[in-house]
Amino acid sequence: MYRFLLSRQWVILTLVALLLIPTMIRLGIWQMHRYDERSARNQLVSDALDAEPVPVESLTSPGHKVTRLERYRSVTAEGRFDTAHEQVVRRRVNDDEKVGFHVLTPFVLKDGKVVLVNRGWIPADGPSQTAFPKIPAPPSGQVTVTGRLMPDETTEASGIKDIKDLPDRQIMLINSADQARRLGATVLGGYLALTAPQPTGGSPETVGKPGMENAPLNYAYAIQWWLFSAAVPVGWFVLVRREARDRREAAAKETAEESAPAAV
Length: 264
Known about the structure:
Strand order of the largest sheet: 2-4-5-8-6
Order of helices and strands: HEEEEEEHEHEH
Radius of gyration: 32 Å
Distance between the termini: 35 Å
Number of strands: 8
């Protein structure tokens, strides 16, 4: 009755089913790994955002590379803004996906060291792409700022090409080593994404909190792949039963036709 399973068509179908099952199981396991990675990343971000602010020099120093555990940590700094050496970072978007600039202002600490502060986003509404935009002034004099500690930007991490020969005081990436050479000063590694004090009039727009990755989506995909893997043998069994039934019905019909009396 089931000799049809030895036919070329059914052998191929069975082999494909046998290959699909472990493949789908493996894809489900991979999705669970992605779920674990994303969940761990989200926990790191959440822990960093919830941590109490600490002095910036307790987490970073000149030449220091900000780690995953230090990224997004809230830090404070006391000093003054150096607007004379302010720059803008090109091709940055705000929460509404509008393209503009980020305002990068050196902040001189009491001990003379410098920490870079990203004061936020302004629109690119100048007369031309080469003109330096009008930037709202930061607080003057000695102030205390709070911000999220961020690692130096690289092309590899951001996907942004570091274009050279840009208009004066415009850059593509925020890099403390490059800024140390430009300023001729001792610059702490990484930079601060300003969170306080809030700018007067809401400009520049401070950079929003980092978004959380959609880890539950990977969990759902893992369950989906495993359900698919379970459905393969069920589907194969249903097809076999249907094929056997169709063959029985065809054989019964053929027998009935052969045994029927010939018409006179």
